[in-house]
Design goal:
By secondary structure, the chain is mainly alpha-helical. It folds into two domains: about 60 residues; about 30 residues, no CATH class. α1 packs antiparallel against α2. The N and C termini lie far apart (about 55 Å).
């Protein structure tokens, strides 16, 4: 039986513990499980980034290059990070130059 990567197994086990024992565990234990799951997600992202960098450096990755609006990318990033900023008592604001025609 293949359970995937070790991080996938850890995340799955934490999810099972959380779901099966939610009513039996104190809030502090549930919070620790949540923290562990979030950190497993962060580690998965880091590992995937490292693997992508390895592919890039070895020339084994294809890029699908396309024109994008930088303003839209910045706007999307700010809106995605806004909940994180709010939970840390700060805010994000976009101040982009007016769009010029090419």
């Amino acid at each position: 039986m293949n359970c995937g990567t070790p991080l996938t197994s850890i995340k799955g086990a934490l999810g099972l513990i959380e779901m099966s024992a939610r009513d039996a565990l104190p809030a502090s234990a549930l919070r620790l499980i949540e923290i562990a799951r979030n950190n497993a997600d962060r580690l998965t992202t880091i590992v995937n980034d490292i693997l992508d960098l390895e592919k890039i450096s070895s020339g084994k990755i294809d890029f699908d290059l396309d024109h994008m609006s930088l303003n839209e990318v910045i706007d999307s990033a700010v809106h995605e990070m806004m909940p994180f900023a709010v939970t840390h008592g700060t805010s994000l604001q976009i101040d982009l130059p007016r769009r010029r025609s090419m």
